[in-house]
Amino acid sequence: MQFNEQWLREWVNPAIDTEQLAEQLTTLGLEVDAYSSASGAFTHVVVGEVLAAEPHPDAKRLRCTQVRVGSDTILPIVCAGKNVRVGLKVAVATVGAQLPSDFTISSTTLRGQPSEGMICSGKELGMGEGLDPDGGIMELALNAPVGMPLQDYLRLPDVTFDIELTPNRGDCASIRGIAREVAVKNGLPFVPIEVQPQLSTIDDLPTLSLQAEAMCPRYAARIIRGVDLARAMTPMWLQQRLIYAGMRCVNPVVDVMNYVMLEWGQPMHAFDLQQLTGTVQIRMAAKGESIKLLDEQAVSLLSEHLIIADDDKPLALAGVMGGLSSAVTLATKDVLLESAYFDAINIRKTAKHFSIQSDASYRFERGVDPTIQELALERATELLLTIVGGQAGPVVCEQCLAYMPDVPPILLRYARIEKILGYPVVRERITTLLSALGMQLLEQGADWQVTVPSSRFDVTQEIDLIEEIARLVGYDNIPERPARGASQMVNLPNTQVTLNTFADYWVQQGYSEIISFSFIDKKDHELFQLQPAPLALLNPLSNDLAAMQVSLLPGLLSTWRYNQNRQGERIRLFEIGRCFIPQSDQSVHQPIHLGLLAAGDYQAKQWGASTRQVDFFDVKRDVEQYLSTFLQRSDFSWQSADHPMLHPGQTAALIAGDQQIGVLGALHPRLSDEYGLTQAVILAEFDVKLLLLKSNVSFCNYSRFPSIKRDMAIVVEQSIAVQALVDLIRETAGDVLHEVEILDIYQGESIAVGEKSVALGLTFQALSRTLRETEINELFQSLVDTLQDRFNAKLRA
Amino acid sequence: MTMEIPVEQALQQLSQQAQQAIEAVTDLAALDQLRVHYLGKTGVVTQQLKRISSLPKEQRPALGQMVNQLKRCIAEAIEQRKQVLNQLKLQARLASETIDVTLPGRGLALGHRHPISQIRERVVKLFSSLGFNVKDGPELEDDFHNFTALNMPPYHPARAGQDTFYFDDKYLLRTQTSPVQIRTMETESPPLRIVTPGRVYRRDYDQTHTPMFHQLEGLVVDQLVTFADLKGLLHDFLNQFFEREVVLRFRPSYFPFTEPSAEVDVQFISQDTGEKKWLEVLGCGMVHPNVFRNVKIDPEIYQGFAFGLGLDRLTMLYYQIEDLRLLFDNDYRFLEQF
């Protein structure tokens, strides 16, 4: 809501300056986004009358004018304004005038013609372009007194306010509503301007047929005949107010409609009566009907859209926008004025359906005082008759009281106020403040029955009244109570690793956290061959943000490429975020994932240390170290696996119980080639749920008896997984085998092609006794035999 | 008496030779060889001692004294030289082992936590200290939990202010973390004290908006928690968060799920100009009775308050980051500063 300060002060004029007024509005909940001077600073600009305007002999675009600026002062002025013509009243900056942006007018010659001043546009005076027809000079009213200082004529200086209205305060989308708030805050009486009912001078009655009563409980209208739009002009003060409010000036009838809406909050509409045939109907549209709106957009109507129609055609999309065919133009002679009360939800649906937000729909959606339709009609008539003349007929009002809002009195309990606010407000203060808002209070024991004025349709419950009291007392005047802790401590489950600890672990391993959007480009999803198909948004912002990610890996990869393009060398990234995985039963699983990316050098290039490319086992170590430090390493195992983004020979799945909880592997060469990458990229992704669940640790006694070490070097087929060998050894040896270390894997000289040598270091130790050499020798032999049986392993000489 | 002079002279010569030899020696092994040469069992000095027995008896004590004197002198000189050589050896070693201590240390670098996460943890820690538990909930939400239960029935004008990503009529990306409050109140009984950090989504992308951002909301439900408690709690929080006594402004505002509602501004004073400026950091209010009714909590018995803050905005404010989009570019030159 935008408006100028003078208009507000016509309604209520507290003894505070502009800055204080702005501060006050904000503390009332009417947040002032901005306030600024309505014009630039200027001096020596006066009203002038153009007496002559001849083409400049040497310049096509210029005119040589004679402008009268005083009873006997006529100035020659060269002017570039397209609209300058004889008889026009204009703003003249005389010699010596200071204009905004430090521009001084001096006596000069323009292409050989003398010029003793400048005819100004509104823009040149820092008033915006709203008052300048088509980029020309500002046209003042014909009755503007010649020689009068322009500040006096335009009532400057003035200040424009821009208020950010919250959706509940539709009542403050009007000067009337804001004035009430300011009056209450300053303890001043609120006296609305007086509106005189206009006596009808003709008998013409519009024929109304209110059919959709639920959607339009009240419809008031009146005919005015004989308006003269061709010669009438909207007064400057009214034009200025519309422009300060951010609106456009159209013609005097439309301008008055808008003015009354700004003043009272009641949107209005005017039809060109000659374009109407028969009865004015307020009804739901029939499917298949269409209308061309004022903004020249043709729309097809559905049965849920409320329209105003005549016998032949739809005339307006009710409460949203009028139709082009019945619009008031300069040729209009007779008008039908409409002032109605429409159902807010229906207007919202319609406006949303057509994606139109007009000043009317903005107000109807938020609510309009259901009692002021006729008053607004009277106010508009009063203004119109003065400006464009004509004769008014009687007001006709169709209504259906059953659908009018009915707010019964609200019980306000005195004790409840302190219980919610934590602060006792004295009774007299409560009655004073609420009465000032126009509420009627009826005492009922310690409490009140409160009747709310029709303009405050947002107040429907006791809590709304308590808010009004808090707001008017001032939030800053309600004392704070010191913060108190809970009577219970927070939950601290020791079987849960917190996400924070988890994230910190990855930071300590050298990974930096990224946060990327949870969306994915469908093209990327296809390129990566990820499964299942991602969940698509109905209304995405753009193609690259059109669906929900099923994996964090694409985001990590693109972040790495972004950084690599910027000469990143060694990169370790991680992200913890949600994925959205469509299930076969139409539901969507939303697990939190951990994604890892390691690329480039194993460690940053540095003096005194050689480096190498990061590989699968570096990242595997980071994961395994987490498992053994925070969880039970033995609860997890790795298996060779497939993943569309990963190298088929370098991918492992992490298994917990019988569940695969993630994968780790090198980027698929197909993708490296696609991106032209030469560096190694290792990726991993896990569902974090099981990675955060730990079992409570209970201490196990350790052996104090000596251990025996034996190394074993065996040769097996290359395809046999070392893990399988270790598992078999553990299984066969039982409890006395304390530890198995993998000392070396060797292929090459002295080992047959297709085979590998595996060197293992075995440590034997018993919990309660000293092991005998012979016993271990026998066990060692049986291990060798079993390995031979199962894997055809040969002990290496 | 012809013998007297040659012996003494010989001893003196010997002494001089020995002193010179010891001074000239530069390593411990050569010094040890000298020791053997002079003082060993067959050494030169030992030989002199043996000669004494061949002298007349009355000369022996004086000569013996002289030889012993010589022996002590040489031993002492060797010992002194040994100390000097040890000292030199240590100095040589130290010199050879000296490193350039200004060279940087070696090894693997640590990573960095994203600044939003750091701010989130800071906020969570502060609220945990007063007994708030952290709650999480789905980001793909239904209309009921994201809007209707929060006193925003279909076609409520406040819905227009939150441009929403939809999947169909019913499902959407949550526009706020408030649905987690609803889900908690549906499953747990008061008293409640929770905070709900998380990602939220709105259909908006420009200089000051990203389609995904981060919120943290808090909720307290109990029999007697008031607007005065809300003010006190948030003031304490902001004091602790900014580590100074902040000046606050509680401004009336509107959220469908709270009433009375407020926005909280913190006063910042420009270090350059001294100009005072209010910056909005929080929204809050008393939980609307309709919300309690929607989750079957009796608003006559229980009441409470809720508050919410934008973690991204708070992060920008805290670290003086001017451009919101930097938070999601994940540029290494950005990440490594935190």
Mind explaining what this structure looks like?
- The complex is a heterodimer of chains A (797) and B (338).
- With 797 residues, chain A is of the alpha+beta class.
- Chain A has 19 helices and 42 strands.
- Chain A is elongated, with a radius of gyration of 41 Å.
- Chain B has 338 residues and is α+β, with helices and mostly antiparallel strands.
- Chain B is 45% helix and 20% strand.
- Chain B has helices at 4-24, 28-39, 44-52, 60-97, 115-128, 143-146, 157-160, 178-187, 227-242, 289-294, 311-319, 326-329, 332-335; strands spanning 133-134, 140-142, 171-173, 192-201, 212-222, 248-255, 258-269, 276-287, 303-310.
- In chain B, a hairpin with a 2-residue loop joins strand 6 and strand 7 (258-269).
- In chain B, helix 2 (28-39) packs antiparallel against helix 4 (60-97).
- Chains A and B meet through helix 7, helix 10, helix 12, helix 13 and strand 28 of A and helix 5, helix 7, strand 4, helix 9 and strand 6 of B.
Blueprint (SSEs and pairs):
The complex is a heterodimer of chains A (797) and B (338).
Chain A lengths: L1 E3 H7 L6 H10 L3 E7 L7 E12 L2 E12 L2 E7 L9 E6 L3 E2 L3 E2 L3 E3 L2 E3 L1 E3 L30 H4 L5 E6 L10 H11 L22 E3 L7 E8 L10 H9 L7 H13 L3 E5 L7 E5 L5 E3 L5 E3 L5 E4 L4 E4 L3 E2 L12 E7 L2 H11 L4 H8 L6 H16 L2 E2 L3 E4 L10 E3 L1 H8 L5 H10 L3 E5 L2 E5 L10 H12 L25 H10 L3 E2 L5 E2 L1 H6 L19 E2 L4 H13 L5 E8 L2 E2 L5 E2 L2 E8 L16 H15 L5 E5 L5 E11 L2 E9 L1 H7 L5 E7 L20 E10 L4 H12 L3 E10 L8 E10 L8 H19 L2 E2 L2
Parallel strand pairs in A: 13-16, 28-31
Antiparallel strand pairs in A: 1-12, 2-12, 3-4, 3-6, 4-5, 6-11, 7-8, 9-10, 14-22, 14-23, 14-24, 15-22, 16-19, 17-18, 19-20, 20-21, 25-27, 26-27, 29-30, 31-34, 32-33, 34-38, 35-36, 36-37, 37-38, 39-41, 39-42, 40-41
Helix pairs in contact in A: 1-4, 5-6, 6-9, 7-8, 18-19
Chain B lengths: L3 H21 L3 H12 L4 H9 L7 H38 L17 H14 L4 E2 L5 E3 H4 L10 H4 L10 E3 L4 H10 L4 E10 L10 E11 L4 H16 L5 E8 L2 E12 L6 E12 L1 H6 L8 E8 H9 L6 H4 L2 H4 L3
Parallel strand pairs in B: 1-4
Antiparallel strand pairs in B: 2-3, 4-5, 5-9, 6-7, 7-8, 8-9
